[in-house]
């Protein structure tokens, strides 16, 4: 645990604080697992609906959105488990989650033909900044404890 070297009352309070944070993160991971299960069930329902209605573009678009949403949930789940393991949020993981989230919106917008050129330009710029952040996090890692 990260607070074990501190002695006395302050150390006990900090150890309790660390334990409570770990407990909250474990609870959030359980919630994420349930959410991931529900999302997977939703994808299966959308797949069944899309296979029944192959002519309806809305059913196929809903399936694509559901699948991309599951990928976003998986990336969020990874950031929670990384926090539990390392006791910090890693910029690399957070930037990857953001990239997947933005790419999801780009794919949905492109698939539904609802993006204008300004939206595409803005989202492309945002993706470029996020990729730059991710690359910078690889070149400039945080100092080791």
Structure description:
- The model has no long low-confidence stretch (mean pLDDT 84).
- It is flat, with a radius of gyration of 20 Å.
- The chain is built from four helices and no strands.
- The two termini are 13 Å apart.
- The protein is mostly helical and 145 residues long.
- The longest helix is centred in the first third of the chain and has 45 residues, at 8-52.
- The protein has one domain (8-139).
- Its main location: membrane.
- It is a multi-pass membrane protein.
Provide key terms for this protein.
4 helices
Give the helices and strands, then pairings:
Elements: H1 8-52, H2 57-86, H3 91-111, H4 117-139
Protein name: Phosphate-starvation-inducible E
Subcellular location: Cell membrane
Membrane topology: Multi-pass membrane protein
């Amino acid at each position: 645990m990260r607070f074990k070297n501190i002695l006395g009352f302050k150390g006990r309070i900090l150890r309790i604080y660390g334990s409570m944070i770990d407990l909250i993160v474990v609870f959030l991971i359980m919630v994420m697992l349930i959410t991931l299960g529900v999302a997977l069930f939703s994808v299966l329902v959308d797949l069944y609906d899309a296979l029944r209605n192959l002519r309806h573009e809305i059913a196929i678009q809903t399936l694509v959105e559901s699948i991309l949403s599951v990928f976003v949930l998986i990336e969020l789940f990874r950031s929670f488990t990384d926090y539990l393991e390392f006791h910090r949020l890693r910029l690399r993981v957070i930037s990857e989650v953001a990239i997947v989230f933005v790419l999801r919106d780009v794919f949905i917008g492109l698939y539904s033909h609802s993006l204008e050129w300004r939206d595409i330009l803005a989202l492309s710029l945002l993706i470029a900044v996020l990729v730059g952040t991710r690359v910078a996090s690889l070149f400039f890692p945080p100092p080791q404890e």
